[in-house]
Amino acid sequence: MKRISRILLTVAMSGTMWTAVAQTSAPAWSPSTLDALRQLQSAALRDDYGYERLAHLADNIGPRPVGSLQASAAVDYVAAELRKLGFDVRLERVRVPRWIRGDDRCELVQYSGQVPGTTQKIVVTALGGLGVSTSRDGITAEVLIVRSLAELAALPRDRVAGKTVLFYGQFDSLMAESGFAFDAYDAAVEPRNNGRSAAEKAGAAAVLVRSVGGAQFRLVHVGATDYFNSAHIPAAAITAEDADLIVLLSSQGPVRLHLVLTSDLHEEVDSYNVIADLRGSEHPEQIVIVSGHLDSWDLGTGALDDGAGVAIALATAHLFHDQKIRPKRTIRIVAWMGEERGLLGARSYGKEHAGEMANHFAAIETDSGAGHAMGIYTTGDRSLGTLFQPVAEILGLSGAGVVREFKDPAPDLMPLYFRGVPAFAPIQDTRKYFDYHHTAADTLDKVNAKELRENIAVVAVLSYALATTSQELPRQQLALPEWLK
Ligand SMILES: [Zn+2]
What we know:
Layout (H helix, E strand, L loop, with lengths): L1 H11 L2 H10 L6 H14 L4 H13 L7 H16 L3 E13 L3 E7 L9 E2 L2 E3 L12 E8 L2 H5 L3 H4 L3 E4 L5 H5 L3 H8 L1 H12 L4 E5 L24 E4 L1 H11 L5 E6 L2 E15 L4 E11 L9 H20 L6 E8 L7 H9 L7 E6 L7 E7 L4 H4 L1 H7 L6 E4 L8 H4 L5 E6 L4 H4 L12 H20 L17
This protein binds zinc ion (ZN).
């Protein structure tokens, strides 16, 4: 505690005072380590290793939904690359469902102004991971539009029974473009997450959600719904334009819609988290996790979500290898499996390693694309930001010197965070991220190679800083939520 307040004080002081105080209290990093961090940063900004690995994951392997052959090929690829870099690699088993998309079809079959004998196509995608489909013939039902779960809950059952409920909440693009992309997402995503079970409870026949995302190119955004699979009605996302059309037509009279969704949920199969260690020289038992998630949705090739995160972790490993860096603590690269289906790999890691959490010094995950890097997000004790000022000064040399607290850890870090592990992520430009997130347009061309290198520089420098600091990081005592037990 004393140490922390002394550092807080020095940051507020002049450069001379900093030197004076730093000499009497052990600095978090020695001058030679700070030099090494600068070298690591400039090496990262020159290195194309990360982009090349991302290109292989996205373009050669392709979409990597859990339980698929591509997800399994990605596990083997990442493990082999890390072995080449001299890391000690093992695969930790995760049981995952195997979901296979079927036909997704939707059309308006009755609406105001309809020309006899015609219908209108609606662009639709089944929400992922459900074992519930329509019959091959589909279902035809009147559409009921609601804006929120609360609005649905307030309706009498006879207004909802047998209808197809359309959740018409809107993603606030202006909010996203102003730099609050995750706030815009959080504000819009609840009907996709929980609308299915709510609609079933209210007696609905099926559920549609307006796509949760920013782009207006008639793109559907897939995603998981009803993570714990408790409901039994089919659910799909339609494009923003189609949802707007249905709302307009509904203001003129009843709209009936024909929906066919034939995805299938098969038996669980084995998949894996890839875990690769570079053993620490002084505290090998203490672990700094550097990670991204290996699975993606099936529509695009998962270049942004989250091939980029895996590539950034791989590139960090490559830089340590290339620069012959031996960290004091163990660097553990993790490629998580099953994030998109409810953090399957991360939850299983949290349970299996629950007894070792005191030795998990810190964890990093990149899972918001590969946009321009601006600094470090910390999630945990408030003093973390102050501790990392010397690192931020170095990252500032390449324009990534911002340190901010973020309310949530990256998704796969939740099982660690709630067990007390401080969480970190690069701060990225996410203004366009939700235009492509979970769509067919999440492809490699959306990644700018220079911006990817900026992110690699942030994560590599932060990893090494965490693996060498002489400071203990403050940890939080949090209650473990039920779903992580
Ligand atoms: Zn992701």
